[in-house]
Specification:
heterodimer, A: alpha+beta, Nucleotidyltransferase, domain 5, Alpha-Beta Plaits, 9-stranded mixed β-sheet, 4-stranded antiparallel β-sheet, about 50% helix, B: alpha+beta, 3 domains, 21 helices, RNaseH-like_sf (chain B), RNase_CAF1 (chain B)
């Protein structure tokens, strides 16, 4: 306990507990931890290292993965649903640590050189008043997980590097533009607001009068100066210590110090009322035309007010423009400075290096969301957008699972990062390797931290982004070796981007590991067959979304088996393929044929509406529990997943969305109605000749609220029944 | 109200005149929780009041979501509710204190909380939100996040505790009475007979097996009889498949003197079993039952965690002091009691049962400076310091081990101080009499349980009048408010006023505009009926002034307070701009309207449909 607090006290602000402990224990240098304080120099060095590198491995630590249990990835999730779940995760959680590890082939030493960096990042709001909410979600279990691996939250929240995404930066600059444009158009807008209301109290009037005299005196003194050059001294002595004559942009100025904001406002007001005074940037069009009031930024107190004497109106305008430009530059600088950690991503993107990650689709979604812009609505759009920034991405998890040699090494088991690192990269004693397995391809990885090199570096901690990135890169180097890429001293450079043996892995990522769905970033398509390995670990269940019914509002006393029994009684044996539980309150039923879905929905509807003995005795009545259970087709699931809300239970989620689940009939009628309405409203609009936004909004709304195919096929049963 | 403008330099000798940064406040984490809890218990008992102050991970994400002066008690509550459900408490400062001869005797504690899932059941909270600005300002005060996340105290709310009793899989001793009025069917009797004979033979077997017996035979016997050991005592598990069967089994077991029945829940609910434990004698039975009792208490302590403190405060029924009590008590209610009800009225009543006297210092402040914008504690203290002479002598006894240089939780002491100052200034007697329950002095009682500064009384039905902004006491009916949006973003209220000028007759009379956020403004018509008039013209296609036509065609929209209420009710769909929320709410209104219309046509087709389906089924 005491030792712990001691360490914490030592490391409270700058250094990191973890690195301190480990570096004390081993002679190896610690992992390169980067925070706000050392970001600039590290970035400069990183630019060089990345430029020289052959590939860069990355890894992220987040504050959470799923915002609700039902948002986890399930085997029955279609690829579009999987993407929605990834998107939700990337939008809600924050990245707290970012590992970047460039690898360079060193011909002289016949080894790779890795430069692991561990960045602490934190979405701190650097620009005030940008209207964005800097809010993120923490998943309790993920926080506990991080705590278990001694994650240093203080380093992150105190010293984490902040960032702006590209779209945030653009937005901030655009806003800046509009602010400065506005001021030019209507320079007096700020003044008017308070000008009408002031000078009511006696004290204010007296103070204002005194200031008026003071400023007039000072001005008079200046002009005397200019003409005679005699009393300058005297006039400045005349002022008390709150007022000092200085120079601003080659013009004489009066610095006003130590006054309250009310007093300053009165001074501004005085200048407004007096003849020949000018405020800047709160400009007054009246009188006192040769004085300008400016705020100059200065350390440490921020803004310092100045009254500046100008020769003429033209000179005053020039000064104002100058000050305005200056302030604008400052604001721009602030925005540029707020870009922060994004510089690293900009660097990786502009260098077009090969990016290596381990199961990194979620990582990429986070990177895109945090550093580039809002995530697109579909996986296809997303991957093509990612390709623009990162044209070459390799996932080591895909490699390990799609190559027979590698699978053998992995012993066909799990391909977790730490296990892969242990099996592929553990450093065997040199004697053993040289004598034991002569054919075993080998590649050395050395680590460089600052200016020190280590051939057997092991001072990172598991689940620390920098170390995980290093492990990922090492696994990639070894894996390349195993699939027959030759690294030897005779080759001056390695060209991994055009290496034929790697081609089939490049830009193939697991959209979701649970379903082993590999997405091709080039095409946005799900790769049907595995990438050429004979690994058929499990026969993927055929998930047919048209055959599935989503049920929610379930209570815990109904288990899957009873479910199946009930349904089999109604639709005959073999009609139900499988039942999947989404959580305790919702489940999917997959029927053997798609028409069972519509039959089920209709039957359910009827049983709930009709209260006769037949429907009460109907086997399904037990399932439906007096109308608490709701049902819908698969598309509704997609709509629910795309909602920004995340309630803990699925049933509450549907409730919170306020999804008005209509029976198919109601839906069908509604569509007809709305079509009619749309036509009506179109007529109406034509009549009025100008579009009424309200009517238009509702007209288009109906078609976007419900997924398209749901609408189309819901029309079908009505017509079928009518014709019967 | 007396304004005594004395010189503000306080020259009285204050005995413990420490800088706020040096107030000794006990910091409590997991490691010293049990110890400090006992101490706190005695302090709460001996003190007159308890002050609380919470440090949360966030308040409101965007400007319009904070509680605004024009919020009614209901909408204010809905906003507080949303925040409470979203964010997390990281520090909870509790300070029992008494006022003796105008001296403040305080015992401040600051608890560090983290909703760690101690029981591995996904509770108390799956996830929570953080606002980076809140974390940054906590960091500026030197808050140790590692300490909090590694060693913070966890908790379960009362509702969560009940819900998890079964899930945790704890053996529960059957304490409730067995209903003997069960009417037995034939099947029941058979079931009971079976249990009886089985238990009988098992007991016999156990008693005989005490004699020396072959190991093989005894183990075989165990296997056949399903006998196991519970601790050092033999036990038998009887599988049951319903609550009724449990009742029957327990009833049967009453006949046996030496056995203690236990319910064995299965994780996640579902099928249960009754475990019968055989004790060797009457004394042994009592011993065993005590053992069970202790285990249960131990387990409860682990489950409740920090909630023990809340339960202590609640049990003491002491008056509680808070600043901005609505927000804090919405948090307390949702984290430690149960999920928040949908309306203010449903919240007030159950809260009152748990905490009968809640006093908001912010509300007391309004008594002094109703027009001032004093929304935080330091501002309130300095405001009072500049205007009144009310020194407070504070004593913090027995805090020897507390870390002196720790400012965390000092807000709670400031609340105590502020309260004592306000009592002096407002001539409120801080007497608390403990007769039949806790009684506050009448002058204090009339300030109790007021959650929003604007609500005049907790007893009266909530009036629908609101203030428009702080610093103005002119109250107006919410019917006179109109929300307006769809103009150029970031416009100032004055500019908007300029735009509206001459556009409609209502704007020729007295009215006011305030911006709610960048996208939306609230307009106050001082003439009753004007809001309606204006909204009607906005909706109709009647020819209005060209200027208004232009504005509307550029996207100007307006709606009454009802829509705003609706927005507040649907917190799940809150957007960062109020304008967008209002738009959505209006859209929904139109949809509901459409639906109602379409329903008229449905009935006909329903009829057909019913017949067809039923024919199919037959």
């Amino acid at each position: 306990m005491t030792k712990q607090t001691l360490v914490r006290a030592l490391t409270k602000f700058q250094t990191l507990t973890r690195s301190l402990c480990t570096s004390a224990a081993t002679s190896d240098a610690a992992l390169k931890n980067v925070t706000k304080s050392n970001f600039e120099p590290v970035l400069a060095e990183l630019r060089r290292v990345v430029r020289e590198s052959d590939f860069v491995s990355i890894d992220l630590e987040m504050t959470g993965l799923t915002s609700a249990p039902w948002r986890e990835c399930f085997e029955f999730d279609r690829p579009d649903i999987q993407y929605l779940k990834v998107k939700d995760s990337a939008e809600k959680f924050a990245v707290v640590q970012f590992g970047v590890c460039p690898f360079r082939w060193d011909q002289l030493n016949n080894s790779f050189v890795a430069h692991p960096h561990n960045f602490y990042i934190f979405p701190r709001q650097e620009i005030q008043g940008d209207g964005l909410s800097y809010e993120f979600l923490c998943q309790t279990s993920s926080m506990e997980f991080l705590a278990k691996y001694q994650f240093d939250f203080n380093a992150c929240f105190y010293e984490g590097i902040s960032y702006l995404s590209r779209s945030q930066e653009e937005e901030a600059l655009r806003r800046l533009d509009s602010v400065y444009k506005d001021e030019l158009v209507d320079p007096s807008s700020n003044v008017r607001e308070f000008a009408d209301t002031e000078l009511v109290r006696m004290a204010d009037i007296l103070y204002a009068e005194r200031m008026k005299n003071k400023i007039s005196d000072w001005r008079a003194g200046l002009s005397r100066d200019r003409n005679g050059g005699s009393d300058f001294q005297e006039s400045s002595v005349d002022m008390n210590q709150n007022f000092q004559t200085t120079f601003f942009k080659l013009r004489p100025a009066l610095a006003v110090n130590g006054l309250t904001s009310r007093q300053l406002r009165l001074i501004k007001l005085v200048m407004n009322l007096l003849p020949f005074s000018i405020f800047l940037p709160d400009v007054t069009e009246k009188h006192f035309k040769d004085l300008a009031y400016v705020h100059v930024t200065c350390e440490p107190s921020g803004l310092r007010p100045l009254l500046v004497y100008t020769d003429s109106i033209a000179d005053r305008d020039m000064l104002m423009r100058e000050v305005k430009d200056c302030r604008r530059k400052e604001e721009e600088m602030k925005i540029k400075a707020a870009v922060g950690f994004r510089h690293v991503l900009d660097l990786l993107s502009s260098e077009r290096k090969l990016i290596v990650g381990h199961n990194c689709f979620l990582d990429l979604a986070h990177i895109y969301r945090k550093f580039f812009g809002p995530l697109p609505l579909t996986a296809e759009e997303f991957v093509s957008a990612v390709q623009k920034y990162f044209p070459y991405i390799i996932d080591t998890k895909v490699m390990l699972n799609s190559n027979d040699v590698l699978l053998r090494i992995m012993k066909r088991g799990s391909t977790s990062l730490s296990k892969a690192f242990r099996l592929l990269c553990s450093q065997l004693p040199a004697t053993l390797t040289s004598s034991g397995l002569p054919n075993e391809p080998r590649v050395k990885v050395e680590v460089q931290v600052d200016d020190q090199r280590f051939s057997n570096w092991n001072s990172g901690a598991k689940h620390e982004a920098g170390y995980d990135a290093f492990m990922t890169g090492s696994i990639f180097a070894k894996a390349c070796c195993h699939i027959g890429i030759d690294f030897n001293p005779d080759v001056p450079t390695v060209d991994l981007l055009h290496e034929e043996k790697l081609l089939k892995y490049v830009n193939h990522l697991y959209l979701s590991w649970v379903n082993e769905n590999i997405i091709d970033l080039k095409t946005g398509k799900i790769v049907a067959e595995s990438l050429g390995s004979t690994n058929i670990k499990r026969q993927n269940l055929k998930i047919l979304s048209p055959n599935m019914v989503l049920l929610w509002g379930l209570t815990s006393n109904l288990r899957a088996k009873e479910f199946r029994d009930c349904l089999l009684k109604v639709y005959g044996t073999g009609s139900v393929t499988s039942i999947y539980h989404l959580d305790d309150t919702a489940a999917f039923v997959q029927f053997s044929k798609a028409e069972f879905v519509s039959k089920f929905l209709e039957l359910k509807d009827n049983l709930e509406r009709v209260n006769d003995p037949i429907s009460i005795l109907h086997p399904l009545s037990k399932l439906l529990e007096a109308g608490c259970v709701r049902a819908a087709g698969y598309e509704i699931y997609k709509e629910i997943c795309s909602s920004p809300i995340s309630e803990l239970f699925f049933t509450d989620q549907v409730e919170a969305i306020g999804l008005k689940l209509k029976t198919r009939l109601e839906l069908a009628i509604e569509i007809k109605r709305q079509e009619k309405y749309k036509i009506n409203s179109l007529h109406f609009c034509e009549d009025r000749k100008d579009t009424d936004p309200e009517i238009n909004a509702t007209g288009t709304h109906s078609s976007c609220h419900f997924p398209g195919d749901e609408l189309v096929d819901s029309l079908f049963p009505v017509e079928a029944q009518m014709s019967k | 109200m007396f304004y005594k403008r004395l010189l503000c330099t306080q020259t009285t000798a204050v005995r413990h005149h420490l800088h706020p940064n040096q107030w000794p406040i006990k910091q409590v984490t997991k490691s010293n929780f049990s110890k400090e809890l006992e101490e706190l218990k005695t302090h709460i008992c001996s003190s007159d009041f308890v002050a609380v102050s919470l440090q949360k991970t966030g308040g409101c994400s965007v400007p319009w979501q904070r509680i605004l002066p024009f919020d009614t008690a209901d909408t204010a509550y809905l906003k507080a509710k949303t925040a409470a459900e979203r964010f997390q408490i990281l520090q909870f400062a509790v300070c029992p204190f008494s006022i003796k001869d105008s001296k403040l005797i305080a015992h401040p504690y600051n608890f560090h909380l983290f909703p760690r899932d101690e029981l591995k059941v996904g509770l108390p909270s799956y996830s929570f939100s953080c606002q980076s600005s809140y974390l940054t300002s906590m960091a500026k005060q030197g808050f140790d996040f590692n300490e909090c996340i590694y060693n913070g105290i966890s908790y379960l709310s009362r509702a969560q505790e009940t819900a998890t009793k079964v899930q945790i899989g704890n053996l529960s001793h059957n304490s409730y009475m067995v209903q003997s009025s069960l009417v037995h069917s034939v099947a029941d009797s058979v079931f009971m007979e079976r249990i009886k004979s089985r238990v009988k033979s098992w007991i016999n077997a156990c008693k005989t097996s005490n004699k020396t017996e072959d190991a093989l035979i005894s183990s075989l016997r165990k296997l056949i009889l399903g006998s196991e050991l519970h601790g050092s005592r033999p036990c038998l598990n009887i599988d049951v498949c319903s609550e009724r069967q449990i009742q029957l089994a327990l009833e049967t077991l009453k006949e046996f003197v030496d056995v203690v029945p236990l319910r064995v829940p299965v994780k996640g609910g579902g099928m249960q079993a009754v475990r019968v434990v055989l004790t060797s004698s009457k004394e042994d039975k009592i011993l065993f039952e005590n053992e069970l009792q202790n285990n249960e208490e131990e387990q409860n302590k682990r489950v409740r965690g920090f909630r023990e403190v809340i339960d202590l405060i609640s049990a003491s029924q002491k008056p509680i002091l808070a600043h901005n009590s609505l927000n804090d008590f919405a948090f307390i209610y949702s984290k430690f009691l149960t999920s928040l009800p949908p309306t203010m009225d449903d919240f007030r009543t159950p809260l009152r049962l748990v905490f009968p006297h809640i006093i908001d210092v912010n509300h007391l402040m309004k008594e002094i400076g109703p027009f001032e914008k004093i929304n935080n504690i330091p501002a309130a203290i300095s405001y009072l310091k500049n205007r009144f002479f009310a020194p407070v002598d504070m004593e913090i006894p027995n805090q020897g081990e507390a870390n002196i240089n720790n400012i965390h939780g000092n807000n709670v002491l400031k609340i105590c101080q502020l309260f004592v100052k306000l009592c002096t200034i407002l001539k409120i007697s801080p007497e608390v009499s403990e007769g039949d329950g806790i009684q506050l002095s009448p002058s204090l009682q009339c300030h109790a349980n007021k959650f929003t500064p604007c609500s005049n009384s907790s007893e009266e039905p909530i009036d629908e009048d609101v203030e428009i902004w702080t610093g103005n006491n002119r109250r107006v009916s919410i019917n006179n408010l109109v929300f307006m949006w769809g103009f150029e973003g970031g416009i100032s209220a004055n500019k908007l006023k300029g735009l509206l000028h001459d556009s409609h007759e209502v704007f020729s009379q007295e009215y006011d505009i305030r911006m709610v956020d960048k996208t939306c403004a609230v307009v106050v018509f001082w003439n009753p009926g004007f809001s309606e008039l204006f909204l009607n013209t906005m909706d109709s296609e009647r020819v209005i002034s060209d200027k208004m036509k232009d504005l509307i065609s550029e996207g100007l929209r307006a709606t009454g307070y009802e829509t705003y209420k609706k927005v507040c009710e649907k917190s799940g769909l809150w957007r960062s701009d109020l304008a967008e929320c209002l738009d959505e709410a209006l859209e929904e209104e139109t949809e509901v309207f459409l639906e109602a219309k379409s329903r008229e046509e449905q009935s006909l087709i329903y009829w057909n449909n019913d017949e067809m389906i039923n024919l199919d089924e037959l």
